[in-house]
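Hi Q.,

Before the meeting this afternoon, I wanted you to have the adenosine-3',5'-cyclic-monophosphate prediction in hand. No need to reply - just skim if you have a minute. The sequence and ligand are here:
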Amino acid sequence: MPIERTLSILKPDATRRNLTGQINARLEAAGLRIVAQKRLHLTTAQAEAFYAVHRERGFFRDLVTFMTSGPVVAQVLEGENAVARNREVMGATDPAKAAPGTIRKDFAESIEANSAHGSDSAENAAVEIGFFFAAIEIVG
Ligand code: CMP
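Predicted structure with the ligand bound:
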């Protein structure tokens, strides 16, 4: 299986409830290595740019408001099949549909405040990693 990198964001509902360590432990237990990490508070323009693909969706404004409501932790995760692996560990977008034992099932508050974001493809991962990190900040 290929060694991949993916972009992960621990969202404001997770930082607010001091859950970043517990979530990181789940990621690491799943074989994902945190090769870059930073805590930041997104501006409205940054959140709009990151989620630009969703700008026509009805939930876009609420999503931007939520993602700017507190600090986030942006991460680069590395490992075998990292994109799919991270999505497995996170569980479905809607916590009501997420499998038992997944991050979103155990921690998410709602479909919006769903604790974590993960890239949905290797192509998008490369773009999303470049949004948050310079190559020199990623230490494998
Ligand atoms: P994320 O993986 O970060 O990608 C887009 C985000 O939009 C998603 O997680 C959810 O937090 C949020 N969102 C809010 N409402 C919806 C919805 N109805 N369908 C999908 N995503 C939603």
